[in-house]
Design goal:
By secondary structure, the protein is α/β, with parallel strands linked by helices. The protein has two domains: 13-156, no CATH class; 163-197. The protein has seven helices and eight strands. It has helices spanning 49-66, 111-121, 123-126, 132-136, 142-145, 150-156, 166-196, and strands spanning 13-16, 37-39, 72-78, 82-89, 94-97, 101-102, 104-105, 108-109. A hairpin with a 3-residue loop joins strand 3 and strand 4. The longest helix has 31 residues, at 166-196. It is elongated, with a radius of gyration of 23 Å. It starts with 12 loop residues before the first strand and ends with a helix.
Length: 197
């Protein structure tokens, strides 16, 4: 079976994990061109695995929304010394992750890592759909966890900067809680009045 070519250009998600805070610009810096790249400040990739997985999953849903023919969408995590590749297939809920690969060996660029990076950057020409073996090994589990909001990931996801206002959100949650509590209190009082009669 021949695979259909993707109509839209697919970018590879990237996360830079700096080791030395002074080497990188302020966190406030960002541009529309850099929306797919997020900087995490840490000394290793594994300490931010949950963030890397979350970014890969969300980025995959976004790319799948733009191009339904996509299967695996890659994301690259890199710091000064290592690189790691993440792939997610949002349709089949399959997640693949490589081991951390060294960028340098004896202060020389590691050829195997360069080759692996080239393969990931050209994944759309080289990677097929999930194999039967991948599907049989078990699902990643994101669909089970997010089943109530999965439609938001599939249909409503957007790329761009957003202004999150936690105080407003907390206020709305607090108002809803107070409303529900008051409503429940009134119901209990009505029940007590009926019992007294």
């Amino acid at each position: 079976m021949k695979k259909q070519c993707a109509a839209a250009e697919v970018e590879v998600g990237a996360t830079v994990v700096p080791e030395d805070f002074s080497d990188f610009p302020d966190d406030d810096y960002s541009s529309d061109e850099d929306l797919y790249q997020i900087e995490l400040k840490s000394d290793g990739l594994q300490s931010h695995l949950s963030q890397l997985i979350a970014q890969t999953v969300v980025f995959c849903f976004y790319q799948k929304k733009l191009n339904q023919h996509l299967t695996f969408v890659p994301s690259i995590a890199v710091n000064r010394n290592h690189i790691q590749f993440h792939f997610y297939d949002s349709e089949n809920d399959v997640y693949l992750v490589s081991q951390e690969m060294p960028l340098f060996v004896n202060q020389t660029l590691h050829l195997s890592t360069v080759l692996a990076t080239w393969l990931v950057l050209n994944h759309r020409y080289l990677l097929s759909d999930a194999t039967e073996e991948m599907l049989n090994e078990g699902k990643f589990g994101f669909h089970d966890i997010a089943h109530k909001s999965l439609h938001l990931y599939e249909k409503e996801i957007k790329m761009g900067s957003t202004m999150l206002r936690p105080e407003t959100f907390q206020l709305n949650v607090l108002q809803e809680f107070c409303y529900q509590s008051r409503k429940r209190t009134e119901e209990i009082l009505e029940d007590l009045k009926r019992l007294k009669k």
